[in-house]
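Sanity check

After download, print the first record. It should look like this:
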Amino acid sequence: MFRFQKDQKVFNFSGIKIGGQPGENPPLMISSMFHNKDRIVRDRKGDFDRQRAAEIIKKQEELSGLTGIPGMVAMVANSPEEAKIYIDFYLETTSMPFGIDMWVAEQRAKATEYIAQLGVQDKFLYNSITPWDKDIKGQVQKLKDLGIKHVVIQAFDDQDQTPAGRVKSLEAIMAQGAADFDTIIVDTSVMNLPSTSFSLVANRLIKEKHGLPCGGAYSNGTHMWSAIKNEWGLDGFRAMDAVVQGMSSALWSDFNFCGPAVTAPRVFPAVASAHMLLSTFVYEETGEIHENENLPIRKYFSDFIGKLTAGGGRKKK
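Expected structure tokens:
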């Protein structure tokens, strides 16, 4: 269940190891800022609360260091001009890698050109090559011409919304040239909370067949269910969000588009706690806990690991 026979790819994205066998590397948390209804945004012309934005970014950095869970921010923008303002601010504020979140492909392309002009391709995660893009081959070539190295492929099939449909979608996109980047991670398209399971099963299928890092926007399943706040209250919503984010991050996930950066104080501890349980699931199955010093279990329960592995442990085959 937690060991793949297929060799698993591990990519180095701006110093962050992403991918591998379950429990080998902590999952990358990709939060968002400047999204719709983000309180720090005053208008869509680049006016925002810079002090508060910096505080949110620094808090995520702090939590990343404490938990061992790596993080970055994807900045939502409606235009290339708006994106440029956010990118400049972000690069002045943090050394974390970053992405941009722009649905319109033409606008996203212009913002990506600005990133290439700055020469920060190593720190940039392109999100994303999708099955809805009209010219995938042309987009891929443009990205390569700009020196873009790290990309997200979004896998989803409108006609077959099963996990197998997501695998077919990925393969169709890769066949159009998208398989040739330094880093390729696969977003298996969460549509709502219960269908998150389809995304997680697709993660497993893709890792079994292709060995690629997989994950999803698990916050889609939680934040779109905003109506539940009326029944469960805000604390109930936050608890639901933390559980789904943690559980999903532990099930064949190498990354997580985890929602607004302001929620990092609940999401990072939730994911770290779930990853500790994953580590002991892996140990029960394989007799090993990976050596990565950033694993949450190694940061907080090193004595427990020592007792488990005393005398050489009980390695399984």
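If your output differs, re-run the checksum step. Summary of this record's structure: Strands lie at 10-13, 16-19, 28-33, 71-76, 98-101, 124-129, 150-154, 183-187, 214-216, 255-260.
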